Batch of 2 targets.
Target 1
Amino acid sequence: MTAKKSAKKLTSGKLPQSKPYEEGKWAAEFTRGKGERRNWLMKSEPDVFSFDDLIAAKNKTTHWDGVRNTGARNFLRDGLKRGDRVFFYHSNAEPSAIVGICEVVKEGYADSSAFDPKSDYYDAASDAAHPTWFMVDVKAIDRLKRPVTLPEIKASVALANMALVRVSRLAVVPVTDTEWDIVVEMSRQG
DNA sequence: GCCAACGTTGGC
DNA sequence: GCCAACGTTGGC
């Protein structure tokens, strides 16, 4: 899949600097107890790659490539672990909504689209020996019984602190266990 | 299509 | 290293 269709021009000549996680805003997302499973949300524009496309893909699995934002990159490289659960979110959609559940089946590895000069996601600064950009493989597990829309999420007091709402423009964001359960419960109730 | 939020770039 | 200009995301 590709995260979105618009071509990117990436001309940075060096690896983006990022602060050590323990100092960063998302520090807690990079540590976990033994055997702990975390939850995430990943955004895709359905016109480009929808949850139906993932269901139709071989093994219901895709490389989640094309993410070109250092915050999201850090999550892909170091945050998402095999077995973590992921909400599949349709962005720029009518309406934007969480539509399905996936599982991480392969942890962060080099995003090869950055190496392909013909790709919209080509980045001359990233090479195989020292990749700048990373991707994971996700597998579709379940479609939600019904989509849980962004307006609903915003209207929910219990979900007011979701990273999805608090920090827009991040293609990969963490989801707490509580938030996960609330969203799933909402999807079960008409 | 507009624009707010915010990340990135580059001049100094 | 600061910060203004610029670019991108994505809701509306």
Target 2
Amino acid sequence: MTDTRQKLIEATAEGLRTDGIAGLSARSVAARAEVNQALVFYHFGTMPELIQAATRAAVDENVIYYREQFAQIGSLRELLEVGRELHDREHTTGNIAVMAQLLAGAQQDLLLAEAGRYAMARWGEQIEAVVRRLMADSPLAGVVDPAGLASMISAVFIGLELYDGVDPVGSRAALDAVERLVVLVDVVDDLGPVASRALRSRLKKASAAR
Amino acid sequence: MTDTRQKLIEATAEGLRTDGIAGLSARSVAARAEVNQALVFYHFGTMPELIQAATRAAVDENVIYYREQFAQIGSLRELLEVGRELHDREHTTGNIAVMAQLLAGAQQDLLLAEAGRYAMARWGEQIEAVVRRLMADSPLAGVVDPAGLASMISAVFIGLELYDGVDPVGSRAALDAVERLVVLVDVVDDLGPVASRALRSRLKKASAAR
DNA sequence: GTCTATACACCGATAGAC
DNA sequence: GTCTATCGGTGTATAGAC
């Protein structure tokens, strides 16, 4: 990969982070990359294509970073810990902000939608694997849909990032609130086999009733 | 309120919905409102101020619409029902999309951040009241922070809206997944007093350990 | 691959006639 | 309150010299 391409890709992610999708332009990206503005179009054709390339590179890099950590998660408690670490870290690096701005722009642009779908799929498959593993021998095994839950977790990260931008205190409280609710799942998980079987039948009934 | 002001306010919400924050401009809004472009600045001064006025009006109107429905929610099951209805309805009307685009822009603009904070506060206080009421006589009363949970629910709506734009199937699965998890809370809620007391002590221990 | 120069549309915002 | 006209600047994108 040429130096200029790389510089443009990095400047684009940085631009999404700090200027947002509304403030991103070929001019601003080129200036940030200290590269001639015309090179944006020489290398990437159009702005959406550059954004696609940049966000794709960002998500590929970031997902790799967490692959090992994800593989070592063995309990819900650990998942929460890694989740909070990931949230804090990705929030300060701005990677979630990039994803949020991408998704905001994706609502009106087909190419950005494709890029957003790719990003969510990459994160989703990582998260899903962890959830699936953790749920395998839990009384919740039949109740939880790992793929759906993974999508929800991704959506929560995006939503919380945007929420944090307008109300950081509230976003902290929101994180704490789910953590405490997840403890509930943990408690259920730790129930004895009798209680666990009773719970399972109740859950079956409850799902059927819906 | 003059006719022109009203037209501009409505056109702004519509523009956020269909063009996104990145595609919104004084010219596009004025065209949509079939109003002279200079009137945007005569009536509102700057674009962010117009966006603030428009999103404020939108959230005020929409919150009122749900106030009655929220007041009638008496169980978690009903909360889920209203929640799904609200999500479906607000998603099709595009009101959540407006909020999502507002928050995306709010990350880079102080005035929009203020508008976003206002919107999240209005929704938050409504949701919090419901959560607080439902949790009052539940074994989870001490475990759940109503305000935090309300913030989380708001964030989920925003995140899910953006997620839906790139992967509608995944967003459906995500919604289904939490619904099934909430059933878990419902089951715990329906436990007898003995089991409930046992659970409460377990939860206390679990929270303390954190 | 990189540069300058440029086309042309659009941007927010203002001045001033009506 | 509304209009036209206009400012300076920025947007994407391209042509053509180097």
